[in-house]
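Much of what follows relies on a compact textual record of a protein's fold. The record below shows the convention in full:
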Amino acid sequence: AYVVYLGEHSHSSQLSPLEASKRATESHYELLGSSLMLLIKNSKEKVQDAIFYSYTHHINGFAAYLEVEEAMKVSGRACLRFSFRCCALREKVLFKHCFLFLWLEYPGVLSVIPNRGYTLHTTHSWEFLGLERDGRVPKHSLWRKARFGEDTIIANLDTGVWPEAQSFRDDDLGPIPSKWKGICQNDFDESFSCNRKLIGARYFNKAYEAVVGQLNDTFFSPRDYDGHGTHTLSTATGGAVPGANIFGYGNGTAKGGSPRARVAAYKVCWPPVNGSECFDADIVAAFDAAIEDGVDVISVSLGGDPADYFRDGLAIGSFHAVRKGITVVCSAGNSGPQLGTVSNLSPWMLTVGASTMNRQFPSSLIFDDKRVQVAFHHPPLLPLFSVHPYLIHIRFILISLFPFRSSST
């Protein structure tokens, strides 16, 4: 499968959203049909079956099942194969194939992207950042100035969400902001419900299905069966949950960076296949939907190998979001500290790296009635809100840096 990227839509203000979407879809059928006409018979029928996503709101493009030769044709480089017969020694007749490349121009096609795969990348974080102190929010805290993110709509592209999680209770929240235009997609999962905190949820699985084959009913729900999406979404905007801990460790009140914001989950990641959990065509579709739904911030904690901006679904989707005034925050990845291991470096993204903790969790083990204190090797402990000056760059502020290969963002 491939994503054909055509840039940005410029819908006429005189068209209804439904009519604009219909015209965009028809233009995608027309473009693909005209480009395949020379290669195959019955190209019209082929087009109807091939396109599985039409991006019709803000991002202009489509995703389709294409062979390599067809993708080259759409991108403007046609590969036509001819057979000819030549005589070799001893009068043996050999048949060879000759490939002739023709460069054809299809206006508006900026890139044709293979359906690339991506991988998924404490109760104390906000005190570490100086937003609260000893469980209380100081009068001059940035949290107070920002009203704890009240009524900001934060979207999360990940493995979905577990709606019953305590982080997404809607206690003390007012009506859903009127600018919200999204949905709670629970057609095949009646147990999934949204509220005034979790105001929307969608799933995008067509690109994943193109890779793994037909999916069963469990794949048609935004419910998070992995846990990663619920974790990242609650980190960004979960409400206060007192007494959060793991077997007594890290006990405290868990809350997100914007605890009074509204949240929307866009499920684009699924069980791993060949090392990848999320695919370009689904990611671009989710970005297009989130922009149209009226979100203010998009959070993305996934990444892949570096690619040119025009061939990177995350870069394309985030670019169109930023063009509409939406902040896109992405994880820097879990690799390192070698050079060139940071993910999501497009200049319009806000890329966030993991930090060193300023605490540890020592414990004891008992052997033959003797208590043994376990000593953990840990990175240097840092004072609260410490920033190394040499780590401050135009686009990155890393709270700390320690050469561990694995990290969580």
Q: What stands out?
A: The chain has two domains: 2-114, 117-391. The longest helix spans residues 17-36.
